[in-house]
Design brief:
single chain, 216 residues, alpha+beta, four-stranded antiparallel beta sheet, 43% helix, globular, binds zinc ion
C-alpha cells in the first residue's frame, strides 16, 4: 500500500501510538522496539525513548525558532548549519514514527540529557547501552541512519531507525512531495527551501547510512 504524503511529511498521526508517556512511535514498530527494550533490560540497560514521533508543525516551529535566531538576513551557510542538526519541516524521519532518539535514564542519574555524541561514546554515560545496541539492535531491525557524518546531517549516535518500515518511507519521500507540502503549509524561508529543494534533499534526506547491518 502506498504511504500517504500526510504520513510521510508529518501532517497525520494516525500511524503512531503512545509507547511510553509522551512518546509515540509507528504502531508497526512497537513489538520490535519492545522486544529490543526487554532484551536490553535483561542485559542491565534501561532503553528509553527521548523523542519519537514529531509532527510537521512541531518541526516547522523548531525551524522557525532556529532561523529567527540568525537575524533578518541569514546567509546560505547559516541555514545549512541549522540543517546539520535539524531536519527541514516535512523531511524529519521522526515524522514517520519509525525513528527515535534513545537513551538510558538510569545511566544519566541527575544530569540532564543533552543528546550530544560524547554521551554515547565508550566512556560516556550511554557507552554501555550503545555497545549493547551495536551488538544486538540489528537483530530487531534497528540501525543508525546517522552513524557517520556523510556531509549532511551530523553523526547522531542516539538516533535509531526501524529499517523494515523506514526503508519504504525513505523511498517514498521525494523533493516534489516536500515542495507540495511546503506550498500548503509554508515554513520560514519558503523561498530558499523551494529554490534549493533538490540539492537539500540529496544532502540532508537521501544522504544517510544504509541499513546494511540488519540481519533479518
Ligand atoms: Zn532523532
Amino acid at each position: 500500500m502506498a504511504i500517504s504524503a500526510d504520513i510521510l511529511c508529518g501532517l497525520s498521526d494516525t500511524h503512531v501510538i503512545e509507547i511510553s508517556p509522551g512518546q509515540r512511535v509507528h504502531r508497526q514498530s512497537v513489538s520490535a522496539f519492545t522486544a529490543m527494550q526487554q532484551a536490553a533490560q535483561a542485559a542491565g540497560h534501561h532503553l528509553q525513548i527521548a523523542s519519537g514521533f514529531r509532527d510537521y508543525h512541531r518541526q516547522a516551529a523548531i525551524w522557525q525558532r532556529k532561523t529567527d535566531a540568525l537575524g533578518a538576513m541569514p546567509a546560505d551557510t547559516a541555514l545549512h548549519e541549522i540543517l546539520r542538526w535539524s531536519a527541514m519541516p516535512g523531511a524529519s524521519r521522526h515524522h514517520w514514527g519509525t525513528d527515535m532518539d534513545i537513551y538510558d535514564p538510569d545511566a544519566l542519574g541527575a544530569d540532564k540529557l543533552q543528546l550530544e555524541p560524547w554521551e554515547y561514546a565508550n566512556d560516556g554515560p550511554f557507552g554501555p547501552l550503545t555497545q549493547w545496541l551495536q551488538a544486538h539492535a540489528g537483530k530487531f531491525g534497528f540501525y543508525w541512519p546517522y552513524a557517520r557524518d556523510l556531509g549532511g546531517v551530523n553523526c547522531e549516535p542516539w538516533h535509531l531507525s526501524y529499517a523494515p518500515l523506514s526503508a519504504g518511507y525513505q523511498q517514498a519521500l521525494t523533493p516534489a512531495l516536500l515542495s507540495r507540502v511546503w506550498q500548503a503549509h509554508p515554513p520560514a524561508h519558503l523561498g530558499w527551501l523551494s529554490e534549493h529543494v533538490e540539492s537539500l534533499f540529496r544532502r540532508y534526506v537521501a544522504n544517510v547510512c544504509p541499513a546494511d547491518s540488519i540481519e533479518n
